Amino acid sequence: xxxxNAYIDQFPKEARVIRAILWSSFLxxxxxxxxxxxxxLHRTNILRFIPSQDYYTVLTAHGVLLVITFTIFFLxxxxxxxxxxxxxxxxxDIRFTWxxxxxxxxxxxxxxxxxxxxxxxxIPMNADVLFTFYSPLQAHPxxxxxxxxxxxxxxxxxxxxxxxWWAWKKENPxxxxxxxxxxxxxxxxxxxxxxxxxxxxxxAFLLPWSLGIIDSVNPLLTRxxxxxxxxxxxxxxLMPAYMLWYTMLPKISGGKLFSDPLARVVFVLFLILSTPxxxxxxxxxxxxxxxxKFIAMTNTMFLLLPSLLTAFTVxxxxxxxxxxxxxxxxxxxxxxxxxxxPVFTGMALAGLMFAAGGFSGxxxxxxxxxxxxxxxWWVVGHFHLTVGTAVALTFMAASYWFMPQLxxxxxxxxxxxxxxxxxxxxxxxxxxxxxxxxxxxxxxRRTAEPQYQGFNFEPAVGTVGEIxxxxxxxxxxxxxxxxxxxxxMVLTTVGGSSSDAxxxxxxxxxxxxxxxxxxxxxxxxxxxxxAVVLVIIAYSLPLAxxxxxxxxxxxxxxxxxxxxxxxxxxVLESIRGVMF
Amino acid sequence: xxxxxxxxxxxxxxxxxxIVELRTVLSWIGIRLSAGGTVALGGALVxxxxxxxxxxxxxxxxxxxx
Lengths: 580, 66
Prior knowledge:
The structure holds 2 protein chains of 2 kinds. Chain A is an all-alpha fold. Chain A is built from 19 helices and no strands. Chain B is an all-alpha fold. The A-B interface holds A 335-336, 338-341, 345, 349, 418-419, 422, 425-426, 429-430, 433, 437, 460-463, 466, 470 and B 3-7, 9-10, 12-13, 16-17, 20-21, 23-24, 27, 32, 35, 65-66.
């Protein structure tokens, strides 16, 4: 019998910590996904069993658990797999790896408990500040401290990978950086750069303000610092999905990656362009001059280039794989792809939906046309296609390959897995289509009850009732899909016994390898320097202007602290204060 | 079967955005489809694909495209 060569056999200690990381991610997905169903049914007025003011607690938890906890836990686990596998060496010190993981867990608990305080009276905290947690909304200090611990934990994860790479480089001074490691390191570099914005926002302003050390903050400054991080974080979620499309999809399709050099160019472009774009989230902010917004728009449009390069490279690799499997013709090769494999089908459907999300993203990024959809349900439809499908569905599909690698056990049920990824695609089609359409006729996002009295929304096609039904149907299908995924993961982990049929821990070979690309592509110092210069160009004048106009700590505002139950005495006091 | 079961499942999935978006596209050329009409059209498309996929039976295809 051939000896098994799965990840758990090569790196048993690392497999253990990655398993723990992925399970933290899946727990967040399960809770966050369930809360999404509650929101969907509440907003559409199909089933309301929570008070409407609690909707915002649920919305905060849904956002934070899915786009921070689920995604970032998963990606630090997968990048640890990528670096160890491609460098063929373990982490330098496994205690350090457990250390940053535990730090992230503590951060998550602090954030989670402070949000939970919004609905549990026994917890004397409140953090109904949504994922976009800038002022004037104010959270309990525990929320900000938790976020700091979580982000610093992710920084240390990056240190872990850099330590491995530096050690490997000493032993292999003339070797090119293996592609998966290159992808993890470039992603981490722009994460260091961009998350500085949110670190400054929290440590210098929001946390001292929440603790009562300073009286006020400049809302526009904290918003701008949030979006300094808030858009690049999108690429922080997306880059591991890209890595999986580049390194796993070609192999699962039966072929090789079309071009290693092109993949490196794509990641370099993301390193230098991810951060100086955040102001495109602030097109309607009055305190930022139009010229700065135009620069942000231009930078954002440049980012279409690496995504289009990715679409070309990944599809070309899949076509190569299909032709190796006997596919032929202009389009008939599509039939030869392994559609019965949930890993392939999930990632391919995720990529397809990402194309749709990219097109709606171009509308968001356009300075003038953004006015049409700003703060509407369109935006929610958009990011459910990008992070909610391109990223989430890719992660779930990839888990069907990773969990057997990490446990040494075969996947519990491949058919259920296939149904799960397809169900996600169908559910998201219904939900995101309706959200986009609702945004076009001005239905707002972030509201528990959009059914205003004395005003009727007028859809171009169909009725509001149909749109609501479509959203609710989509939400139900997506939730069922999440549960199917979790059941499969649980039964794979706890059920069954160790199997020799687990495939080897490898990633895709290349048709055009690193030897075909200029060595300068591996010069991380150069690309990081260019990224820093671009950030200085894009942000120094807007930030100076914002501080000049509104002061570093603002002209003085009172925080609005959301409370679960309005205190009539306080309300009377406020009215008295206003009137007299 | 003309295609594998996995392939059929994926084609069914692709019908979802097609049917959902078709309604909007038809409205551009002045054809207003009701919700019930869209469901009926979707059902007809699903049935057509099922008939195409299941008829005539061909046992080899399943193995070939697996």
